[in-house]
Amino acid sequence: MRAWRAAMAATLLSGAVAAQDNQPHPGERGLYAPSAWDLTIGAHAAELDTEEFAKFACGTNGGPPSLPLGDWTGYAACRPEAATGFHEVYFEYDDELELWAKAYSLETQAALYQNTSAYAIPVIASALFDDRGFMTGLRLVTDPRVDSAVRELGVTLGGYLRARYGVDGWTCTDLPQLPGETPFKGFFEKRRCEKVAAGAPHLVVIETHNYRKPGQNFLDRAQQVTQGEFRSETRLEVTLTGPVEDAEARLAAIAAEAGEPSEKDLLVARALNCPGCDLAGADLKRADLTGANLAGANLAGANLHAAILRGADLSGANLRGVNLNGADARQANFAGADMFEVMMFAAALDGADLRQVNLTRALAGHATLPRTSLAGAVVHAADFIGARINDADLSGADLRGSCFDDAQMTRSDLTDALLNQALMRRTNLRGATLAGAEIKAADLLRADLRDTDLTGADFSQSRLTFAILSGARLEGSVWTDAQLPGGFRPP
């Protein structure tokens, strides 16, 4: 991304690209990275935060999620555990900060915010509820689904957690080493430690495991010891040891408030049918706006992170600076909308109508836009790195100065499109139509242009080093001062 911005600084759009760096950091808007420690043991499901946590589901004793839930209050749908009687609710941390950082290609910040983790080690997190809906425990288990280099760190989480709850007062027991269990990387650990937390009626239990189980220590075809088969894990359970305070009074208060819509509920209900409304800056994060009518609405600066906008009508809407990261806007109508500086990293816009939109300086890395129509759109200095734009209509679109590095654009129609100074390094354009397109001073290093229609396209001063052009139609194409792949002879 830095290289792209440096390159664009030499263009007429340099100021626009630099201005992206002036966008406010989420921390300036009161956002922060969520944590399992933000959950209060003893709180009721109806009292727990649902904004900073997501992807609720029934848990599987520290394993992957099972039955999806709407929020914490769905705990009763999860079968009580035989050993504890608790209802386990799996959850993940909200990913707004992670996708914000990824949209701006801030790799360090993205690494800090990504994953549901404890002390930067990915975990599977779940809350434990009693039959009345009170959270009586927290469970964290290091996530075995990550790659082996990260999974090796699993056992180290135990040390951080013991320090968190105080280094003294632990009762630790070494669990028996079973036949066939051997040290992993020269180290064997199989230990259970527990204590009552100081200042709180909480029992804290930490189990750590680091070894190979029977059958995991074998040689591969190259006669090397396999690296992927081992157990390096920490398991934390914090449970309430005493009664829930003021349980009956709190249950009565929760029952009295049940059914009353929140401000967010009222906002979402309004937005479902609100053509021309002024919703500037509205918080519609994760809102279900399927089929909503927001034609011509003012949503400038609104937060639609991970919102569901399937089939919604946003034609002619003001979407300047909107956060659409991770949103599901499949089949939505954005025709003629002003989407200047919109963020839509990893958003799904399959089959959406984006004709005549203004996507200048949009941050759309890794978005999916197959079968979309961007005909006549203005897309200056936008980021579509790694996006999927297959079978799309971009005819007549003004894509000057935009970045499509590593994007998939197979079979797309770019007839008469303007791609001057665009970055299309390693872009897959196989079977695409670029007839009459203007692609001057663009970078198509290693681009795949096999079987493309390049009739009348102008590649003057562009770099096509190592590009693949076999099977392309070249009648009337222009290659003045272009850097061409070895062996290629233009007409």
Highlighted features:
491 residues, alpha+beta, nine-stranded antiparallel beta sheet, 8 helices, flat, disordered N terminus
Could you describe the 3D structure shown?
This protein is an alpha+beta fold and 491 residues long. It has a domain at 31-240. The chain is built from eight helices and nine strands. Strands 1, 2, 3, 4, 5, 6, 7, 8 and 9 form a nine-stranded antiparallel sheet that branches. The chain is flat. Mean pLDDT is 91; it is low at 1-24.
Blueprint of the fold:
Elements (H helix, E strand, L loop, with lengths): L1 H7 L5 H6 L33 E6 L28 E7 L2 H8 L3 H7 L3 E2 L2 E9 L5 E8 L5 H4 L5 H8 L6 E4 L14 E8 L5 E10 L19 E10 L6 H11 L5 H9 L220
Antiparallel strand pairs: 1-2, 2-4, 3-4, 4-5, 5-9, 6-7, 7-8, 8-9
Helix pairs in contact: 3-4
What is the subunit organization of this protein?
A: single chain
Structural class by helix and strand composition: alpha+beta
Q: Please report the total strand number as a whole number.
A: 9
Enumerate how many helices there are, as a single number: 8
Helix content: 10-25%
Q: Give start-end ranges of low-pLDDT stretches.
A: 1-24
Q: Main β-sheet: number of strands, strand sense, barrel status?
A: 9 strands, antiparallel
Q: What gyration radius follows from the Cα positions, in whole Å? A: 27 Å
Strand percentage, roughly?
5-15%
Q: How far is the first residue's CA from the last residue's CA?
A: 35 Å
Cα shape: flat
Q: What do the pLDDT scores average to?
A: 91
Give helix and strand order, one letter per element, not per position. HHEEHHEEEHHEEEEHH
